[in-house]
Structure prediction request, 1222 residues.
Amino acid sequence: LGRWRRRNAEDTLPHCVDNLHSQGNIGNLAAAAGESDQEFAGMWFADSDVYKTLEAALWELATSPADAGLKDFVDTTTALLARAQQADGYLNSHFTIAAPEKRWLKPDWSHELYCAGHLIQAAVAAGRTGGSPELVAVARRFADLIVERFGPEGVEEVCGHPEIETALAELYRLTGHRPYLDLARRFLDLRGRGLLGPGRFGPVYYQDHVPVRDATEVAGHSVRQLYLLAGMVDVGVETGDRTLLDAAERLWEDVFHTKTYVTGAHGSRHRDEAYGDPYELPPDRAYGETCAAIASFQWNWRLLLATGRARYADEMERALYNAIAPALSADGRHFFYSNPLQLRTGHAGSGEEAAARRLPWYSCACCPPNIARLMASLPGYVATADAGGLQIHLYGDASLDTGVAGRPVRVEMRTDYPWQGRVELTVEDEGGRDEDPWTLALRVPAWCDTYAVSVGGETVDVPVQDGYVRLTRVWAPGTTLVLDLAMPVRRLSAHPRVDAVRGCVALARGPVVYCLEQADLPPGVVLEDVWLDPAAPVEAAHRDDPAGIPVVLTAGGRLAGSGDALYTALDESGPGRETGAPLALTAVPYFLWGNRSEGPMRVWIPLAATG
Amino acid sequence: LGRWRRRNAEDTLPHCVDNLHSQGNIGNLAAAAGESDQEFAGMWFADSDVYKTLEAALWELATSPADAGLKDFVDTTTALLARAQQADGYLNSHFTIAAPEKRWLKPDWSHELYCAGHLIQAAVAAGRTGGSPELVAVARRFADLIVERFGPEGVEEVCGHPEIETALAELYRLTGHRPYLDLARRFLDLRGRGLLGPGRFGPVYYQDHVPVRDATEVAGHSVRQLYLLAGMVDVGVETGDRTLLDAAERLWEDVFHTKTYVTGAHGSRHRDEAYGDPYELPPDRAYGETCAAIASFQWNWRLLLATGRARYADEMERALYNAIAPALSADGRHFFYSNPLQLRTGHAGSGEEAAARRLPWYSCACCPPNIARLMASLPGYVATADAGGLQIHLYGDASLDTGVAGRPVRVEMRTDYPWQGRVELTVEDEGGRDEDPWTLALRVPAWCDTYAVSVGGETVDVPVQDGYVRLTRVWAPGTTLVLDLAMPVRRLSAHPRVDAVRGCVALARGPVVYCLEQADLPPGVVLEDVWLDPAAPVEAAHRDDPAGIPVVLTAGGRLAGSGDALYTALDESGPGRETGAPLALTAVPYFLWGNRSEGPMRVWIPLAATG
Prediction:
């Protein structure tokens, strides 16, 4: 995780800033400020890319306050936003320079409140890190205008793209200003009443088909659904409205039992970037939008905070390693928008929405800066603290400076996770001498059946309770602790209703899902003809290749023979699947695919008939 | 086939005419004629629905000349078209009343030549049947304008939606006017040079990415691809340009070996109504647009005429019974636009493009009148005649009046095909006394392994040559002949690269593909939990239900148990598929599904593990 954050700071974030300039996003704001004649460039919600990059920069500055370039980007962009902001607080370059007559007129389509939401989230990062009081002021001016227009005395409207709900709740947390929270709740209350109209894809597309508290299944555009769910948890927690939390957890049950890819990706359909029917999870046409994985990560984080249940942290981990990380190239400067679990031989990958390789930028560039803000904010998701102690949810090299029971506690974490399951911790608690015990909780992921814990070199027998091992003691300064999570290779199969991967397995080790890539096959072998031999062992092999692929899996395969006929009649003896020539297979971590050469890939591998 | 034609005449065609009025298509033309103030209604290519319905009416009038209502529709609509036509010959209600300033400006999008093509095809039907010389005149006026604008002295442009190419070649056949054929060829020559620009989905979408003679695989929007291929065959045949036929047959090899559903449907993607990658054939998200199946039927017909190869007639039959017929309800007044091979439990079917049931009409109503014109023209596809004899390609009750070697020949055909494989023929050849032999060729479909032929009650031993049994003799008047095609139930499996149906079989008998429907399952059983027992026999059962479902298949099934978990790790003993409780299964013809109650359906049935 630390390496990811550094790559984000050194490569992804500067790349995003460069593109905000070259693609015209900054120019749009300059034109809105009256300082440029540029025609509006890009998508009508292009401002949101600026806000996400700002948010990323602010989180990163909290870790690297000496980064002068980043500080300059924040300061100059904030000043530009202040100049582009209209006198009444309105801020949106598209509706300022390209379509002023349409301001607020198309809530189903305009993304005005969506953009405002990302401005607010950047401001929340500014406020929490102390990075830019000016940005907080800009956002509050706009937020106040929004309260005026959409609040209890205002119009009854909602935004076609949810995002403002969670943003306003967060702004309330930052400022304590209750109208922000009340408006977030109002937006949730008004949703599902058909206020947005049918639109091109019907009201389900933007979750306007059913009141949020009555929904029983996720539906429609997956990013919109997931941001909405994040907002529901935020408002539920802050207002004590249990019905919102109940609905969010009900939809969690639905989506994670019937509509989530084995990678943690969301969204099965390209046409409307939407969830499919239950168990409709095609690997080749998986949409798995990067933004949806980020939204899922953020929603699960909110549920984790609200409930303390480990299953939410498990999903954060799954999404992080297998649905967010795959979107980014090893060089940190190329991105996937959709994250399919299979790329076929002969794939025509010219379309951005089904690209055969990561692209440096997108005409709809929502995903790249979203990755940047997620990666920059990663340190904030590793652990939580409360009066009773410290809970560690994600593992990676980290120094956790926090407070327990009112006094500072530091925990040093060292690990090769996710390649090794061994996590070494050193607890520095100056107050530990006071014989004041507290509980250190360490998550044992659901994928892990066998683990060991030792304290000061002594093995201790501690059960998993609700997904965590919990050690309550007076922590003498410098206490060392080792958590060892066994990481055997797992062969995963899907629920039989998932027709698209029948007869296939996915390989996983620890939190990491693996895949086969053309790059590891002999010349001339077509990936679609490769089967996994279920009788052959699958083993992990560590490589001295920390910057590349540290762990691969080796397996035994079979090469299918196949004729030309697309459909053939089975003879009466039943379906025989020929067992073809043996073949040694190498699987690589899915999140690292596509970094060597362009070519076919698959996560789900067909099983050869045994014997 | 005869029953289908009658239903078309009695229900579908009048239903289409009604909708042309109620949906505003006729009103658009009235407005273009200056006889109405109606604002333009429907899609910008709404005129094409009128033309297709006209074409259907004209084919039907050739069979039923006494249908006064139909004759009136043809005459009044033709007169209206003549009044709506502009002085220079231009005819398009959208670009006359809604966007006159945009005439000819957006060839990638406007469908102006597409609409003209359907006008011309209606005129060809008028000319061939003698049904409306006025319509031929209207179409020729527009065609002449098109030649003037787009011909050798004109602009270098093509239409984003192919259709004009085959239409102009057909108009040349009708009129002998060479400039029509030359322009059809010019449109083919100009395609694939990027003249259309990238558009929303890239040049592949409208087959403008590669010159038509150089294409090696079908790609993009499937209806456009298939109409284009029909035009390539037409122009190739008429100009003697072998390179066009070679390209068409090359693409046939591609599409029927890697991109066609077991039903004969085309198009795997909803997003751009397009072909997928090779072997990307998801049953649940099959697009299988009705118009694509009709286009495939027409393309295969042209290849059959050009080559005489039975494989093209086989594909016509497959498409007719399993990709065109399913789009129409038993009542002839409800339609599918897309024809998926699986409808899941929990399918949210509100969108027209993925409707859970046939709808009475569509906002994009290309398919319903296309079915009407295909059904009305069916008699023309049954057989061909040449100097050497008569070739029968499709089986059904029919009286074939034709000519062989310059004298009239009549063949009466009686059969319960496709429910029975027995076809009884009586040859009436008044000239047969002259001892002038000719050849009667009867297609033996590729699905048929066993057949018998008898003449005058005597079994004759005649081999299949190139897909036909050929009987050369002097046909004494009243010679009776029986072709008996064995129709055992077939269990079809797909090429192993078709991941989406791995471990499944489709059931077929004769030319008809079967499916399981919720309506035939016990209450509470979820269709997705039903497996086929490979050890149990599958048998055909005839029902005394000629208007409903004449033949069902009975099979043995197993009811899968399945937990809640979406993904589970296999234990070391390998993948065990539980064998669940036994269950009697009834499969019904796929083309008759959805006529009893709305509910889940599947063509591909998972196989339970044996034993």
About this structure: Residues 386-485 of chain A form a domain with the Chondroitinase Ac; Chain A, domain 3 fold (CATH 2.60.220). The two ends of chain A are 43 Å apart (CA to CA). Confidence is low (pLDDT under 50) at residues 572-576 of chain A.
